[in-house]
Amino acid sequence: LHAQCSQRLQSPHMDLCHVPAAREKGWYLALMAPNVKGPNYAWLDPSRLYCHPQGLQDCVADLLQPFQGDPIDMVAGIDAMGFILGAAIAAVLRKGFLAIRKAGHLCVQTVAQPYTDYSGREKVMEVRTDAISPGLRILLVDQWVETGGTMRAAIELVERLGGVWDHHPHILVLPVPTGVAAICIEDSEGGRWIRERYKCSHCVPSRLQPRFDHHQ
């Protein structure tokens, strides 16, 4: 996969027709574009993956695989790139989609949650108060979990509005949601906090996880 990534990303144009004969989990990660603009940007741009029809389909299928048979009533995506995967997953599941927004964009009554994002910036996210009722099972989706601050804030919003949580078979005292899904959940302090408490799904094969953790 690393060799594929190096070779394909040197091309100025993207081959939207090429599909490898053996589509192993995560093959589409090689479609992501590297950062060419410096340290103020994320180290990879997954939006290139979304342009590839089979890549996007397989990414969504891999994210949903751990939740086969689980009751999911609604999918919630985090502003802004979580909207893409979240809406795609909601369409596959034939469920509704809830947008968790950055503060100041919703013209209805909201509940807000402050958080610190992966770059260390203080932000606030909001969600409308009439979408989540007690008993609703929510699958939370974002593009990437780096420090975990953004996803943790989204989890807290859902909890405050009464989303239903199951019980982890090994940590019965902790509440956990129906699930958390992202292309990558890094092995950061925040990423580990989420993995230990919630049922998670991601696309990075275990042999490549250290590279993603170190942004290589």
From TrEMBL:
Species this protein is from: Mionectes macconnelli
Record-level GO BP terms: purine ribonucleoside salvage
Name listed for the protein in its UniProt record: adenine phosphoribosyltransferase
UniProt entry keywords in alphabetical sequence: Cytoplasm, Glycosyltransferase, Purine salvage, Transferase
Metabolic or biological pathway, per its Swiss-Prot or TrEMBL entry: Purine metabolism; AMP biosynthesis via salvage pathway; AMP from adenine: step 1/1
Catalysis performed (reactions): AMP + diphosphate = 5-phospho-alpha-D-ribose 1-diphosphate + adenine
Localization of this protein: Cytoplasm
Sequence ranges assigned to domain Phosphoribosyltransferase in this UniProt record: 70-162
Record bears the keyword Transferase: yes
Quaternary structure and interacting proteins, as annotated: Homodimer.
Cytoplasm in keyword set: yes
